[in-house]
Structures are given as C-alpha cells and as structure tokens.
C-alpha cells in the first residue's frame, strides 16, 4: 500500500504517522515493519524516529506477525483501592506489567484477567486495562482502568499532569536539601536498553526531589514526577551523578538485594466514577525496609 504525507503531518515521527493512518495495526507492529524494511521512503529503508516534512510518499508492505494475547493466571494481587472505574494495585518488584519479548507468563495483566471481569480494551489484547507502567524491578502503586471511558479519562489526567506521582528512591552519594532537574530524556545511542539525560535532544522531562534521610554512602530521597518518561527517575538521577542504588543498567554498584531501590509510594488521581480526588499509598516492601535498616546513618 502507498500512503502520502501532507502539510498536516510535518514534524510527526513516521511510526506515529503510520499508526494514525493504519490504526488497525499496533504501533509496535508498525515499528517491526520499519525495522524489517517493509516501510520505504523513496524506495529506501528508514527508522521509526524519522521526522516527516509533509511531502513524502511512503510504501508499506504488511507482514503477518504472530498475535500476542494475554491469558488469565491465578496470581495473587494486592488491591489498594477499587471503584467502578479503576483499580490501584501494589505491584511487587520483579513482576513484568505485560507480555513482551521473553516474558509471557506471570505478568500483572495475566493476574488482572484472572481477578477482574472487566478491563479497558484500549490497550489491545496485550495490555488490557493498562494506563501506565512501572519498570519490572520498581515496586508500588500502579493504576488500572476497568472501562474504556475510564481509560480515556485517566490517560488524559496523566498527559495533562493531573496525576501526582511520588516515589521513594535510595541514591548513591550525599544529597541535601531539594532540587529539580529538567533535562530532556532520549534513548542512549550507545546502549539501547537505557535512556539518557546527557544529550541536548529528547523529550522534555521534569523531576523534583528532596532529601529525607542521609546514610554513610547513600541518601533516601522523595521524588515527584512532573512528566512520565521511560526510566525518567533512573536517567535523571544518573545525570546528577547520584544513581539509584543497585541500578546496574545505569552504572550503580551491584546490590545484594537483587533489585534497585525505587518504589512508587503515592499516586493521586481523580476517580472517573465518583469525580473525587483519590490518594493511594504503598508502604516500602519488606526487602527495601530491610535494605534501608541495614545502612549506617550519618550523625
């Protein structure tokens, strides 16, 4: 098939443009086609990040991919809050949110499908109910939509920054007082598995922090997210020279606790069902409490 970009498409990434024009295909599937050189610009392969000028002719040769579907599994879930529109979970560290490369079982989505009769369908067969995600080894509060209307409402709250997200993080080194970092975040060109805030380009990102307890080699900080970028806290803290404790991907020392110290502590949102403001908190899990208690405090 051939698609034609016009002036209204100027400045869009090509994968976003394709998703708008071919909404029956997921964005991840379209990105796979781009990598497989099934999407051509003037007969040449391109990248998902290519920015359109608004004049291009784009050839697309669709390919069949095996469909991924989530399946119900009887996995325990800790529910912190629930109403007709939404559920707030206490996600444990080590649990993947939804199926992907190498992870098809034991996911949050699989547990949700077993526990709840109805979930939003806007995330497709792979991500029913999922409005936002937490990294695999980040624990704490995670919000799920039960209906499509609730999903749209909550997604708008996230995008317009009306959802307050507060994390607790243990970072390497000494931090005092409070501060904010607004460095843009982009994919690290030297290590595609991580993000970086050390380049001039990227998506605008805002992180605010305040130090709440000091230890001999670490500081416990409270972090408030102004935006919701991939690995935002991890990348911003690494850029400040204070890596999340145990976060080997970003260069921190190995942790004997088998994870990094990052916990989604508080999440505040407006319930689509009641219109009331809801604040949900998750206490530090036992492993992080034990880790913290083992540290030497600074007198």
Q: What do these coordinates show?
A:
- The chain has two domains: 2-60, Roll (Structural Genomics Hypothetical 15.5 Kd Protein In mrcA-pckA Intergenic Region, Chain A), CATH 3.10.290; 79-293, Pseudouridine synthase.
- It contains six helices and 15 strands.
- The mean pLDDT is 92.
- The protein is 18% helix and 25% strand.
- Strands 5, 6, 7, 8, 9, 12, 13, 14 and 15 form a nine-stranded mixed sheet that branches. Strands 1-4-2-3 form a four-stranded antiparallel sheet. Strands 10-11 form a two-stranded antiparallel ribbon.
- It has helices at 14-21, 27-35, 108-115, 148-159, 232-239, 286-293, and strands at 2-4, 39-41, 44-45, 57-60, 79-82, 86-91, 139-145, 164-172, 178-181, 186-187, 195-196, 207-214, 218-225, 262-270, 277-281.
- The N and C termini lie far apart (69 Å).
- By secondary structure, the protein is an alpha+beta fold.
- A hairpin with a 3-residue loop joins strand 12 (207-214) and strand 13.
Within CATH, the superfamily of the largest domain carries the name Pseudouridine synthase
CATH class category name of the largest domain: Alpha Beta
User: Can you give the helix content as a percent range?
Assistant: 10-25%
Percent in strands? 25-35%
> How many distinct beta strands?
15
Summarize model confidence as the mean pLDDT: 92
What is the first-to-last residue Cα distance? Answer: 69 Å
Rg (CA only): 21 Å
CATH topology annotation of the largest domain:
Pseudouridine synthase
Structural class: alpha+beta
Kindly report the oligomeric state of this protein.
single chain
